[in-house]
Design brief:
Helices cover 37% and strands 20% of the residues. The protein is α/β, with parallel strands linked by helices and 184 residues long. It has a seven-stranded mixed β-sheet, with helices on both faces. Helix 1 packs across helix 5 and helix 2 (64-74) runs parallel beside helix 3.
Amino acid sequence: MLIVGLGNPGSDYENTRHNIGFMVVDELIRRHNAVKLSSSSFQGELYKFQNHFLLKPLTYMNLSGESVIKVKQFYKLEDVVVIHDDLDLSFGALRFKKGGGHGGHNGLKSIDSKISREYIRVRMGIGKPEHKGEIASYVLSPFNQTEQKCLQEWINKSCDAVEFLLTNSLEDTSSKYSQKAMVC
């Protein structure tokens, strides 16, 4: 299985809402002592544990699909899980689905265009800004102090869900780990 965490490379984006996928993958790397695989042709940081791959595309969000398709094809992987931020869900929400639209998320748009929409999505709610015109600055801003208090707990629960998904169905994972929000 290829597990992809979406985010943007560089310290400017490190702790932003848009990088929640990177944060979850970083925790999975730590938990499993995943081994880093080197290849600049993948356009991302690639790690492996057991028979699973963890990918952080370094193409910037809008081109995430470039990295995903290269790893998927090189290793002949069928199953892909993408962990990403979702504006349409309240902060701390955790939802799972296969397929569907991109909801305006540029990382998902890019992946959809390269591998189709038939992959599992781990949707992590980040809430919405007050005004639509603030979306770009909102997703690229850090979590506020209140959110930071329970951020690690949310990341841990998301990792637990992804680990459960490795050996269980999407339906069982969704039933066990879905949550509407997180109260900090």
